[in-house]
Design goal:
Elements (H helix, E strand, L loop, with lengths): L49 E9 L4 E8 L17 E7 L7 E5 L11 E10 L4 E9 L11 E7 L6 E5 L5 E8 L5 E7 L5 E7 L6 E2 L11 E8 L2 E7 L4 E6 L6 E6 L14 E8 L2 E8 L4 E3 L2 E3 L4 H4 L2 E10 L2 E4 L7
Antiparallel strand pairs: 1-2, 2-3, 3-4, 5-6, 6-7, 7-8, 9-10, 10-11, 11-12, 13-14, 14-15, 15-16, 17-18, 18-21, 19-20, 21-22
Amino acid sequence: MKNRLIVLGIIFLNALPAQEKKINHSNIIPSIQIEHTTSPLYRDPLFDGAADPSLVWDSTKNQWYMFYTQRRANMTKLKSVEYCYGTAIGIATSKNNGVTWEYSGVLSLPQPDDGLNTFWAPQVVYEASSKKYHMFVTYIKGVYVDWGGEPDIFHYESYNMEDWTFINKIGTQGCIDAYVFQLDNGQWKMWYKDQKRGSLTYTATSDDMLNWTHSNKNEGGNNPHEGPIIFKWKKKFWMITDMWEGLDIYSSKDTKNWEYNNTILGEPGTRPDDNINGRHADIVISNDNAYIVYFTHPGRIYFQNKEVYEESYRYRRSSIQIAELELVNDKMVCDRNKYYP
């Protein structure tokens, strides 16, 4: 796929949608050959700051897409967390069952503001009835040296995962990290981090992914966290959140009431670039197997269990990893070293 670089200052939300060809898709998702993958699974070759992965299978091209936040980790002149802003959505693809990944540029997403702006945490979901892909992504106007800005969640559509049309703002000011999942009754439900309400997970529901009804109920625990992801596996619904010291896992029978199950990826692994806690993840379910794809900051140093802050490339760089989830006595566990000699 050709690099799709963002052209700043000339793309607007009312731009005409690209000509798109409707295509047929299969629901059969192939197995990821995790035993043949390397560690790390992927590093961004441009800025070395791949984070917040979202994986989608495209049966028309027989390949996997990985969308991710392209943090500018190797731009060492940037101050504080500035490298986390001005970020595009990076693309990597795999034609060999997820074993190796090739960088494919960045998405050119229509946006309302001139200059350098920020995209975070893409999530792509396939709608079988319309044969469309939907992307929900955090958008922030501008670039900040410290954590700031007024984020919102933008909704885009595509038939091919290359050409994306802006649909609408979700209207969740101050919210990030949207994750959309289709319920058994056909309705769509969105989970997201609300930074104005304690950095907890709140939800919205929709019949068409256009009009959303928001709930005031916190789901996913009372400790601050981000990056909620939801999936159905082994006759239960599962939620995984990133609480920055590992990933908390909750289970549910109805996607409304959640019980804490376990914490995974909090202890260091032995694989290259996997020597630190896992962060903001995605899940792939195939042949009743569950694989978690997450990112790490392998160059960060801890002293007396506290992270030592640095304004350095080593501190900022991040890598994508993959591991298998398993159920043991009804507890979800993850042996990140399982396939590593």
